[in-house]
Amino acid sequence: MKTYRIATIPGDGIGKEVVPAGREVLEALAAGGERFGFEFEDFGWGGDYFRAHGEMMPADGLDALRGKDAILFGSAGDPHIPDHVTLWGLRLKICQGFDQYANVRPTRILPGIDGPLKRCGPGDLDWVIVRENSEGEYAGVGGRVHQGHAIEAATDVSMMTRAGVERIMRFAFSLARSRPRRQLTVITKSNAQRHAMVMWDEIAVQVAREFPDVRWDKELVDAATARMVNRPASLDTIVATNLHADILSDLAAALAGSLGIAPTGNIDPQRRFPSMFEPIHGSAFDIMGQGLANPVGTFWSVVMMLEHLGEPEAAARLMRAIEQVTADASLHTRDLGGSATTADVTRAVCALLAPLPERQAA
Question: What number of H helices and E strands is found in the chain?
Answer without folding.
Answer: 13, 12
